Amino acid sequence: MAGLKLQAVTKSWDGKTQVIKPLTLDVADGEFIVMVGPSGCGKST
């Protein structure tokens, strides 16, 4: 089974304000990751 690779992912709210700057993430097959943060901060967005 293949892992997951995100490369140069970005997000901006108004086309100007970057809330995620270029993000690259490699998750190997069988590896687990978690996202943590306060309620309402956009973890599932």
From TrEMBL:
GO biological process terms on file: glycerol-3-phosphate transmembrane transport; glycerophosphodiester transmembrane transport
InterPro entries: ABC_transporter-like_ATP-bd, ABC_transpr_MalK/UgpC-like, P-loop_NTPase
The ABC transporter domain, residue ranges: 21-45
Molecular functions per Gene Ontology: ATP binding; ATP hydrolysis activity
GO cellular component: ATP-binding cassette (ABC) transporter complex, substrate-binding subunit-containing
Name recorded for this polypeptide: ATP-binding cassette domain-containing protein
Tagged with keyword Lyase: no
Keywords, in A-Z order: ATP-binding, Nucleotide-binding
Source domain of life: Bacteria
Protein source organism: Escherichia coli
